[in-house]
Amino acid sequence: MGSISDPPLLTNFTQLLRSCPTTSSSSSSPIQNADMAAPRECELPVIDLGGLSSECEEERQSCAAAMCRASAEWGFFQVVNHGISSELLGEMRREQVKLFETPFESKVRSALLDYSYRWGTPTATSPAQFSWSEAFHVPLAKISDLSCYGQFISLRGVLMEFAAAMSRLARTLAGVLAENLGHHRGRSAFDETCHESTCFLRLNRYPVCPLSTEMFGLVPHTDSDFLTILYQDQVGGLQLLKDSRWVAVKPNRDALIVNIGDLLQAWSNDVYKSVEHKVTTNEKVERYSVAFFLCPSYDSLIGSFREPSVYRKFTFGEYRKQIQEDVRRNGQKVGLPRFRLQTST
């Protein structure tokens, strides 16, 4: 049984199931054409960021090289000694839990976090496009706004400190990845283009799911940004595609997870990989996470760091508009393939 804080996910999913005539009645799983074997569990590459501040040039270069190698081979890596205290992370989690325990009707109708509450997948046209989750999707520019918090005023200070720390970390990591490819401006390039109005935090909750564990907590997707940093609990459920097979990410209590987004893949000319990932549900325990997304201004031009380019130049605004159009038409994102240049053979 769900609580009064839970969104009506089961009702919504059941209606979608009934309205989709192509869905087989013999299968309750939204996953289609997937490898149904249990995915193997993996531990992502772990990067000790203490190496970046080492007095030894060799250690600094080794740390940067490991990060770049993981970005090219996995599209994902973990960071430890990242500079965000366990106390702040713990406060963030406690405030997040209190926020999501608010009755569903209050979350939907209130002005909490700039009316940013979302649940399920309104654009889904089939069960395979449905996410069993809820979230607050908050632009950084709104985080200091007192009117966004109502009774949750204690959340404001924690969220401001957390967002600032994640933003600094994201820009540092993106700068290292850029410098490794020979970009002379490194971090400053992201400082100039990534604004509070387009960078955002997403506070996620994945309620207990009474359906199959094959149900999506978050449907397979790539991130439409430069870089994402994820703070997750120990429940697990994050999976990513590695060598065309899904692998389950083993939670690491001391680490934050970093993944490459579409924009950095395009900018790096496919050197760094924006990898498809998803979240599965849990039949017994809910899951929490917070993601920070490093995004440029909408008029920022995304072009390859060197020629010949794999992709045509495009703005972030153009990219978002194309994604929204594809989702409206097909129920799902297409992403970078829309912008790949055709090469003659």
TrEMBL record:
Keywords: Dioxygenase, Iron, Metal-binding, Oxidoreductase. Residues 195-296 form the Fe2OG dioxygenase domain. It holds the Pfam family DIOX_N. It catalyses: gibberellin A1 + 2-oxoglutarate + O2 = gibberellin A8 + succinate + CO2. It comes from the Eukaryota. The keyword Oxidoreductase applies. The keyword Metal-binding applies. Its EC number is 1.14.11.13. InterPro entries: DIOX_N, IPNS-like_FE2OG_OXY, IPNS-like_sf, Iron_ascorbate_oxido_reductase, Oxoglu/Fe-dep_dioxygenase_dom. One of its GO terms (biological process) is gibberellin metabolic process. It is an enzyme of class 1 (oxidoreductase). One of its GO terms (molecular function) is gibberellin 2-beta-dioxygenase activity. Coiled coil: none annotated. Belongs to the iron/ascorbate-dependent oxidoreductase family. GA2OX subfamily. PANTHER family: 2-OXOGLUTARATE (2OG) AND FE(II)-DEPENDENT OXYGENASE SUPERFAMILY PROTEIN-RELATED. This is gibberellin 2beta-dioxygenase. The lineage of its organism: Eukaryota, Viridiplantae, Streptophyta, Embryophyta, Tracheophyta. The gene is LOC115739936.
